[in-house]
C-alpha cells in the first residue's frame, strides 16, 4: 500500500486525504492541504485508510463501522446528494465529522427528467402542456422540477410528508399523485422510520397508476420494487418506465432494461457543473471543520460550455423550440443507446455498468446554455426561460 506524505499540520494533527478516483477537481481544491491518494471507491477497504484523516467518497462506497473502525479518519465527505451509503449514526457515535453536497447536481437531474419527458411526448405525439406530472418528494430535485414544469405550463401534483405547502406549494397524498400521466420519484432511500421509501412503489401502487402512465425513477433504485415493476410492465403493454437507477446496481436486470422506454446507468446527476459543485461543497465543509482558509472557488475551474448558443427564428413553433433546446442541452437517448449497446456486448454486467459511469462525458446544466430568440417572440422567450435556459434576445 502506498503511504501518503502528510504535508499539512494543524494543531499537531496531520491532515491526509484519500479520495474516490471519480471525484473531479480533488487536486485543484485540496492539494494545498496534503498529498492526495486516489482510490477505487467500489473496492475501498479499512486497510487502505490506515493513514487517512479525511476520506472523500461518492455513492458507491459503503461508509460504516467496518470501513472506519481502527482508522484515524476524522472527517468523511461525500460529493453526492444521496447519503444512503453512509452510516450517519456510526459517524456520530465515533465523533467523525461529516458533510454531503445537498442539491449539488439537482439541476442535472431536472435536465434528465425534462429530456426524458421530451422523448415521451415525441413518442406519444403530445406536447408538454398535455401531460400531468406527479412528483414524489419535493426536496432539492423535486422542487426545482416542480417549478420548472409549472412555469412551462405543465399540470403538477406533488406529495411529501415532511414539507410545508407554504414553502413548496400544494401537496396531496401519494394516491392522488399516482393518478398523473407521469410519476417522477425524488425521495431519498429510507429503510425504516415513519415514512420508509424502500419499495415505496410496488405492485399495489403501480396498479393505482393509469394503464398508459409512465414511471420515472432517478432517485435510488430500491425506491421501486424492480421485480414487481417488471411484472407490471409485462402485463401492461401501454405502461412505460424510464429508469436511471436500479435496485441492485451495479448489477442490472437486463430483462427490465429491455422493457424500459429509456434506461441509463445512474447518470442523471452527471453534469460537469453538478459534479464540480459537489467537490466545492465538500471542500468548503472540510475548510470549515478544520478551520482552514477557503482559497478555492468553483468559478476558477469551470470551463465555457461546448455549445455556446442555439438560435431560434420567429417561424419555429413554441413546442418544437422547447423540445429542440432541451435535447440540444441534453439528449437522454444517446445515453440510453450507449447503455443498451454496451450491455448487449457485456461479459460482466456490473463492470460494464461502472465503466459507463466512469467514462461518462459530463454534460453541462441547462442554465449554462444560451438561446437566442427574436425580440418580438415574447412567448418563446418566456417558455425557454421557464425551462431554465439563459435567453438572449436578438
Ligand atoms: N440519479 C442520480 O444521478 C441522482 C442525482 C442526485 C440525487 N439523486 C437522488 O435523488 C433523490 C432526491 O434528491 P434531493 O436532492 O431532492 O433530496 P432531498 O433530500 O433534497 O429531497 C428529498 C425529499 O423527499 C422527501 N421524502 C422523504 N420521504 C418521503 C416519502 N415517503 N414520500 C414523499 N417524499 C418523501 C423529503 O421530505 C424531501 O423533501 C435522492 O434519493 C438522491 O440520492 C439521484
Ligand atoms: O446522490 C447523488 O448525488 C447522485 O446519485 C450521484 O450522481 C451519484 O453519483 P456517484 O457518487 O455514484 O458517482
TrEMBL record:
Q: Where in the cell is it found?
A: Cytoplasm
Give the EC number.
1.1.1.290
- The UniProt record gives the binding positions of substrate as 59, 80, 270
**What does the record give as the reaction this protein catalyses?**
4-phospho-D-erythronate + NAD(+) = (R)-3-hydroxy-2-oxo-4-phosphooxybutanoate + NADH + H(+)
* Keywords tagged on the record: Cytoplasm, NAD, Oxidoreductase, Pyridoxine biosynthesis
Which InterPro entries does the record associate with it?
D-isomer_2_OHA_DH_cat_dom, D-isomer_DH_CS, D-isomer_DH_CS1, D-isomer_DH_NAD-bd, Erythronate-4-P_DHase, Erythronate-4-P_DHase_dimer, NAD(P)-bd_dom_sf, PdxB_dimer_sf
Q: Which residues form the Erythronate-4-phosphate dehydrogenase dimerisation domain?
A: 301-374
Family in the record: Belongs to the D-isomer specific 2-hydroxyacid dehydrogenase family. PdxB subfamily.
Alphabetized HAMAP family for the sequence: PdxB
- Self-association or partners: how does it assemble? Homodimer.
- The identity of this protein, by name, is Erythronate-4-phosphate dehydrogenase
Please name the source species.
Oceanobacter antarcticus
Q: Which gene encodes it?
A: pdxB
